[in-house]
């Protein structure tokens, strides 16, 4: 906490200010710059299609960087999702092969909706 004396309209006020935790250390974008998200943790899918990568939040798919049958490495950008005016890359949580794409460019998605699946 820090103590200050503030002068307002000729009157003196003593105030104590306590620093709050903020998002100052979190990368935030207000434009079209890319803010990397942590690798999405896939959930197991039924039917042997591999692991489904789901949308971490509601948004719109603006770029798809992979296609079915493509090998991907852990940490590789799979697609770009726009949410709250931010471009968020969705990263591969594991090495594998894209077994199925469930979305298309310009498609709106909801939180938890499957985007693609990665098999071994």
From TrEMBL:
Does the keyword field hold Translocase? yes
> This protein's superkingdom?
Bacteria
Q: Which InterPro entries does the record associate with it?
A: Biotin_BS, Biotin_Carboxyl_Carrier/Decarb, Biotin_lipoyl, Single_hybrid_motif
Signal sequence span is: none
Domain Lipoyl-binding as annotated: residue spans = 39-119
Query: Keywords for this entry?
Result: Biotin, Ion transport, Sodium, Sodium transport, Translocase, Transport
Biological process terms in GO annotation: sodium ion transport
Q: What name has this protein been given in UniProt?
A: Biotin-requiring enzyme
Read off the lineage from the record: Bacteria, Bacillati, Bacillota, Negativicutes, Selenomonadales
